[in-house]
Design a protein that fits this description.
Elements (H helix, E strand, L loop, with lengths): L3 H18 L9 E9 L7 H9 L17 H13 L10 E6 L1 E3 L1 H6 L7 E3 H7 L6 H10 L3 E7 L5 H9 L3 H7 L25 H19 L5 E3 L10 H6 L4 E4 L2 E8 L2 E6 L11 E4 L2 E2 L10 H14 L4 E4 L11 H21 L4 E2 L11
Parallel strand pairs: 1-2, 1-12, 1-13, 2-5, 6-7, 7-10, 11-12
Antiparallel strand pairs: 3-4, 8-9
The chain binds zinc ion.
Zinc ion binds next to strand 1.
């Protein structure tokens, strides 16, 4: 039995999702996608770094930097256990679209340049530098072959490195302190320069395109094929980069209901609304997230209850259930309690979905074409 609060929350979630779901194309079947961003990206490098940030007074308690970190082998293995347990109507397991970052800053080289040049290392090299991560790429590929973990392209680095370098050059104390702990954090104001394809001037766009092309090169070298979908860091991107995405073989743009187009000012965007499977002038289609599952963002909220209501709305309107569930929810490298909660809730969510909708099946975003009406 649901409590009164849960009923109210369900209703609110259902109605909010329905606002998105009434528009756009429909799909033939009940399909569930779990779109999970940030795999391969660093955030906070260790529990000791969290402590150092706290002692420095960097207000980390409410930040994603409190829990988010490069996923460890344990994190991947425990996540895979949960995904494999639940099967869709086609007998295939629950599948995550793992939106991945291809590179992280090379802190030593950047420092050696006096913070004037950006240098990166491939994400697979970062795996080798962390203590419980050396086998990560093998695990990713195992997840891919078991049909539970499908990497897609989220960016070369999850970083607006121009803005970050500028602040470092200005000798910003918090940014330099975090830099020395191998993190791009700098306190709560700037959102840690995560919006890689936001720009200060339109002149930044050609360089962004080069970065994207270089990122795709790493993706193809690593996985032997391109990424058919793309999700912009922080949902910020200019339509001017879309031809480059198309050239790389992208056919689907993942996102929330609005694309946040840069204006030249951080955190100020011109939203463009998109509907499911709408096709733009380049022939790229938009996939719209209509369900949210982010246990790490709020410990008190009943995420399973609200997400199930959103799935119900998606299916009512013949839309795919596209669940937004960032990597942070499944990371226990810094605090195992964070991962335990996320995985427990994911387990309940997947069990509830397969029980309530036995005809539903799980796919990744790159497979969407086959299901359009
Ligand atoms: Zn992201």
């Amino acid at each position: 039995m649901k409590t009164k609060n849960q009923l109210i929350q369900s209703l609110k979630s259902y109605l909010a999702a329905s606002k998105i779901n009434t528009k756009g194309k429909s799909v033939k079947e009940k399909i569930v996608l779990i779109e999970s961003d940030d795999w391969g990206a660093i955030r906070t490098p260790s529990a000791a770094a969290v402590k150092a940030f706290e002692q420095k007074g960097l207000e980390i308690a409410q930040s994603i930097y409190r829990n988010d970190a490069l996923e460890s082998q344990d994190d991947l293995e425990l996540l895979f256990e949960v995904l494999s347990k639940h099967k869709g109507s086609d007998g295939q397991p629950a599948k995550m679209t793992a939106n991945a970052i291809m590179a992280n800053p090379d802190f030593d080289k950047i420092k050696a340049s006096g913070y004037t040049e950006f240098h990166y290392e491939k994400f697979t090299d970062t795996f080798q530098k962390y203590p419980n991560h050396g086998n990560n790429l093998t695990l990713w590929k195992q997840g891919q072959s078991e049909n539970i973990f499908q990497p897609q392209f989220h960016g070369r680095e999850h970083l607006n490195y121009k803005r970050w370098l500028r602040v470092l050059q200005q000798k910003n104390e918090a940014a330099l302190f975090c830099f020395d702990h191998n993190a791009t954090y700098s306190g709560k104001e700037d959102y840690s320069f995560m919006e890689a394809y936001d720009w200060d001037s339109k002149d930044d766009i050609p360089e962004q395109i080069q970065v994207i092309e270089d990122g795709f090169r790493i993706f193809k070298d690593t996985f032997g094929e391109t990424s058919k979908s793309f999700i912009a860091p922080c949902y910020n991107w200019d339509p001017m980069i879309e031809p480059a995405l198309k050239n790389q073989g992208v056919t689907w743009l993942q996102g929330i209901s609005s694309q946040l187009v840069p204006t030249g000012v951080f955190d100020r965007y011109d939203p463009i609304r998109h509907r499911f499977a709408e096709e733009n002038h380049l022939g790229l289609r938009y996939n719209v997230r209509n369900c949210i599952f982010e246990p790490s963002m709020n410990q008190q909220r009943d995420w399973v209850n609200s997400c199930l209501a959103q799935v119900a709305s998606a299916f009512h309107w013949n839309k795919p259930a596209v669940i937004c569930a960032h990597r942070i929810n499944f990371v226990g490298y810094i605090d195992p309690k964070n991962r335990d909660r996320g995985l427990k809730d994911l387990d309940v969510l997947l069990r509830s979905i397969t029980k309530k909708w036995p005809d539903a099946r799980f796919i990744s975003t790159d497979q969407l074409d086959a299901f359009l009406n």
